[in-house]
Amino acid sequence: MTAQQTPAPGADAHTASRPGGLQPILEARAVTKHYAMPGETVDAVRGVSFAVMPGEFVALMGPSGSGKSTLLQVLGGLDQPSEGEVFIEGEPISRLNDSQATKLRRDRTGFVFQSFNLVPLLDVTENVALPFTIAGQDPKSAELSARIKEVIASVELTGKERHKPDQLSAGEQQRVAVARAMVTRPALLFADEPTGNLDFTTGLDILNALWRACVDRGQTVVLVTHDAKAAAYADRVFVIEDGRVLDEIYLGRREDHAAAPLIGRLAQLGL
After folding, report:
1. What percent of the chain has pLDDT over 90?
2. What is the pLDDT of residue 3?
3. Which of 130, 157, 160 is nearest to 144 (CA)?
4. Which of 35, 163, 190, 251 has the fewest CB atoms within 10 Å around its CB?
5. Over the chain, what is the mean pLDDT?
6. 240 class by beta-carbon count within 10 Å (0-12 exposed, 13-18 middle, 19+ buried)
7. Furthest-apart CA atoms within the chain: distance in Å
8. What is the DSSP letter of 234?
9. pTM surpassing 0.85?
């Protein structure tokens, strides 16, 4: 199988929908992010435009310092762009006030980070239930309790519901973080180097959990990684360099997640 370069979505990013009436779930339009540093202004993200369709698995791949994590934070509404617009399900999130942005993140997005960010005093069930607790919902209600059990099972932690984080391995802790991100059934899952603190085999477990969320649940996944083997899980890979999209590589939906087509294309780019 050969990785293919496709026309950049930014070429038509200003259109509201795609053929067949399908609308992007996530869209960046000329997004730039500046940081004021002593004596200079640093452009972490430079005029990025692309669209992600519902149910896609997309990877933002690049080396440390390329701007990919900053881009993810802007796409997820954790930070505001200096210029340009980000749309989630057609809504311009950069125009929302703090309370509106918080509600959008809570209702429509889930986040998984390199650091697990679990609450040490809470067990697995309580950590997974945290989004409901914060929202003032009762996680012990029949509906939410069933949902919590289901996502814990989906990341293969059944039987460890009462374990505290210090009783879990690093991989198990990250699986709790993935379950917590999935439990509200968000349309969009953002994952920032989720395998960065894990060994290879454990990292594959996390990637498989994200892939199943996409394939089995229809959730859209946007993954930030520097690792070609992780990026190879994606349907499309955007190569980020110096805050820009250097290339878009189409891999397609496949079961084997072979990295060779992606690595071959990266070699052609001299990366």
Report:
1. 67
2. 55
3. 130
4. 35
5. 88
6. buried
7. 57
8. S
9. yes
Q: Are strands 188-192 and 109-112 parallel, antiparallel or unpaired?
A: parallel
Q: Which domain holds residue 72?
A: 4-12+22-114+186-268
Is residue 125 included in any domain, yes or no? no
Higher pLDDT, 8 or 248: 248
Alpha-carbon span 229 to 85, nearest angstrom: 31
In 10 A of CB 38, how many CB atoms? 4
In a domain, 141, yes or no: no
Specify the residue for token string 């809470």: 122
Q: Which is nearest to 181 in space by CA: 163, 165, 194, 166?
A: 194
The answer to whether 171 touches 198, Cβ cutoff 8 Å, is: yes
CATH code: domain of residue 97: 3.40.50.300
| Res 21: pLDDT | 61
pLDDT at 181 (0 to 100): 94
Q: CA-CA distances (angstroms) from residue 132 to 42, 80, 101, 158, 188? A: 38, 26, 17, 20, 17
In a domain, 220, yes or no: yes
> What average pLDDT does the segment 105-129 reach?
92
Query: How far is Cα 253 from Cα 215, in angstroms, rounded to an integer?
Result: 9
Q: How many domains does the chain have?
A: 1
- Please indicate, yes or no, if residue 124 is contained in any of the structural domains: no
pLDDT for residue 14: 37
